[in-house]
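Can't attach files on this board, so I'm pasting raw text. These are the components:
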Amino acid sequence: MTTTTPTLPNRRFSLPFVIKVEPRLDAPAWLGPVVSLGAIAVALLLGAVVLKLVGGNPWAAYAHIAKAAFGDIGVFSDTLVKATPLMMVGLACSIAFRMKLWNIGAEGQFYMGALGASMVVLIPIAPETAPGWITLPLMLIAGMAFGAGWGFIPGWLKAKLKVNEIITTLMMNYIAVAFVNFFVFAVWSEGGFQMSKTFQRAAWLPRLADFATEIKLFRGLTTHAGLLIGIAAAAVIWYILYRSLWGYEIRLIGDNPRAAQYAGLNITRNTVLVMMTSGALAGLAGMSEIAGAVHRLQTSISPGYGFTGIIIAWLAKLNPLVVIPVSILFGGLILAGREIQPSGVPRLIQGIILFMLIASDVLMRYRVRIAWNADAGADV
Amino acid sequence: MDPIIILQAGVASGTVLLFATIGAIFSERAGVLNLGVEGMMLIGAMSAFSVTVATGNGGLGLLAAMFVAGLLSLLHGLVSIHFQADQVVSGLALTFLGVGLSLVFGEGLSKAGTITLLPVYTVPVLSAIPFIGPILFTKQSVMVYIGYALVPLAWFFINYTRPGMHLRAVGENPTAADAMGINVYRLRYTYVFVGGTLAGLAGGTISLAISPGWFSELTTSGQGWIAVGLVIFAQWDPWRAAFGSYTFGALRRTILDIQGPTTLFGFANPFYYNPYWGFFLQMLPYAFTIIVLIIGSREALRKRLGAPAALGVPYVRGERGH
Amino acid sequence: MATSRTAVEMRGIVKRFPGVLANDHVDFDLRAGEIHALLGENGAGKSTLMSVLAGLYKPEAGITLVRGEPVSFNSPRDAIARGLGMIHQHFTLVPSQTVTENILLGLDEPRFLMRLSAYDRRMAELGERFGLKVSPQAKIWQLSVGEQQRVEVLKMLYRGVQVLIMDEPTAVLAPQEIEELFKTLRAMASEGKSIVFISHKLQEVTAIADRVTVLRRGKATAAGLKTSETSRAELAKLMVGREVLFHLDKKPHAFGEVVLKLEDVRAQNDKGLPALRGVSLTVRSGEVVGIAAIAGNGQSELAEVITGLRRATAGRVLVSGEDVTNHSAALAIQKGVAHVPEDRTHVGSAPNLSITDNVIMKSYRHAPLARGWSLNRLAARQKAEELKEEYSILAPSVDTSVRLLSGGNLQRVILARELSAKPKLLIAMQPTRGLDVGAIEGVQRLLLTQCEAGAAVLLSSEELEEIFALSDRIIVMYEGEVVGELTEHDAETIGLMMTGAKRQTPGSPA
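---
Top answer:
Structure tokens for the assembled complex are below.
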């Protein structure tokens, strides 16, 4: 004698349906991007609320951002200039995060890369009269080398001594900034100001504006070759992660280090290599910013690119190609955000976006199902 | 470069780190990693300062700091406990959020007015004890004394009380705790909140007692991160946390004082004659944190001790593990 | 001893997980003072049903009555309050805390301060009463698995449970310890407590239980059968649904050269304590050597030393005459050593990666899968498809994440990877643990095929029957040493050796 009775004890009232949250077996391909876009939309809304609370006008602010970043070819060019270092820092974070190495030190590696590139001009390693095709590659190599070295230290500490890389990379950020400050003030300061002398033209990455005589459209556009370097880097990292043997190893270690060890992979070597690569990419961003946009060594070269890179990587779901458009988006946000009061708004919006992104990830792993009481016992 | 002054100031500024570190210890013992400490400290500092400017009451300011920071940290709790997101990224997001909110709401705060600092006390008999008296009990802020009390209380609570045992169980083996009827989620939320309030308290201590005022991000300048590192050095023990925090405090004071005098231990003071060497001094706290981390990690490896076993791992009831 | 008082009644229980109906309208009843076995293959739904009873899960439908009253539990705490407690396969103990602390975990006493000495005494007395000796101040990580189980039982007894559910309790015990456990259970039953004994082992069920309920694929195929009125063959049929062969076809053949030789190998475990104290053994090509040992006596560390995952502090490991001691895991793989690990999900596979990615884990560096620096994804896919076919891996496609696969299919993926490399030496650790009968037969056949093809196989299993069925030679390990080596299927002697009660004198014939 089997009776099927409701399992819940008598309730005073009950809705005609039950809301169930269940783990999802598989997620359809379109869900990821939709959820991410939804998260951004909600984040912008929340940002608007906060802006309202401090007495600003959110919609005017957002409209201003859109116009100031993408309104015409001039500002778009400026957006691209901001996007260039973001791209490479986003790549740096992506490759590290793929192996679950939390490189929070992209900011410091950026500074070191800028320092290295500057040294080529300021020591000088390449004479001032040297042509661009000698100076610039040297700067590139120096930038990447310094960044890689700065990434090597926390990487080695993690690999050999299991020291938490989140904190070490973070600490290295502060150390790097102080280090660069020393050089700017004590060694190469121009007239006591917090910047070095402006670099010779040979040490400038070519810009669109350089071709203004040939193409009138390019007049005043400061987009520089760093953008091409960034896109090339994205392609290289894409190849590494998705097509190469090394990329397979990175993904395997990131998913399950014990299985990777069991399969004979050398986790120590890979940890160090990935951190060095990540550092090199961030250093490359630093070189690109120095040689392409700033053209001298100074104290504040980065408005927090290293941290924005983390958000870019996360939003791009660690896909190098998606990093490109996401960087442009955030480049616009940073560019236009400079003029918004209060000054913490772009940072706040970035924080809300990251939060919404992680919170929305849950939708990828669970789904909400509404079960009408009539078929409470039916099969899925 | 008076050692007494250095240690005295060290204890004072170390108290900030102490609050944050012990807060993080509570949270991590329950199994939840909270990297948002820096953001929580900053918003604590801002809230404390702005409420005190508005009401003139430092106590209210502290309460505001604790409340706001605790509330925000519950967001991190929600995302990492209920939504089972990666605790590292969630903590980072919390930092960005805290920093962003502080900067936005703290706009113009530095010009908003001055405050009276929290009371400073000298304990009558104890301050006369040679060497220790002037350091620990003379002209220290009330927050410092609260810090003194917090360390043994935290230690006793965690190790010798029943709720403390439950806390440890939840961080070591949440499955066991759950099977025995302990509400793992509720406890984790509670201790994330505790960690957040203590971080907020740390921030309030900065802006109302130690380095009063509001200086945007420079108010905390990375101390929240140093606290997270100190937790590892402390091996999740409040006494070691105190040792580490006060040592760091003394280090910071040393860095300030060492640039002043013209001679140092009989030799010409290089830091006086080369003021730019100050940048290297600036690096010291951060470099020291790395060293401290290395020491802590090697010890953990050697003693095969280490973090609470379930730290950083979201708990899902009924997960079938084979 | 049967009484007519019903302790627990479950009617029409339905429990669903994503993609699987674990309990399909199951009825179950339990009388006071009886030992009732819940029998079924792995995955039949036994643990799920009892987890519902113990308050871990809420069923989608069905009712539960305890002593005649309907109940609905929201957590294990509610169930324990009603006198129902469950001891799981994986112990719910906090390793860094003491026995007493673990027993007190979750209770409202002591009120605030932990004055443990009084409680220590109480725990010791409780242990005496039921014949479960433990030292109250010992920390859990210091105890043997059998002792830990005793703590789990004491936990329940301290809370005054009347219904004790034990999930596969004998998996970690030696034959003698199993007898002791049975004695304890009978003592508890005679005091009026009821015991539910979840197992997939027929011989134990018939030995200990008064009545048995059989589950198959979520449904009850027999409920409350008196064990005295049924046979092992009938129970097996109810469990599996068809006639079950209890024998394997093992063709005798000649053994070849020595493939694996261990000379006085010593090693430490993760805690720094000695795990291997001078192990020497040989395995020849075509031979299956089975290791009989209780969990935690060094067999895991032995496998790790051979496969390059753990350092040997002394001694030598030779594969086909070559000294590979303390070389890397990569070298072991290169030399033709295949390893089917104990832990499928945490060591043997990368859960979020696809079947393809998992299958190429050890071979991706060589042609045709590697082309210069690139991975030849087409070749990898092809190989995965072939292996999927050959090893009957059930999955939507080779791109499916392996975490979505059942235990049996995951093991097939691992076996496909290891065996397709045509290894010289195969180290198989608990290869059939957690699999249902059909999968078990398949795996065992695959192992035999390997040895027929000339591979040397070192097998470790907790099922003595499996060791008997597959091995040419049996090695018994206890506390990191080889204490016996025999070819006869002498369960009693082996059992004694496994618990250290007997050792083979050196110099005896192998």
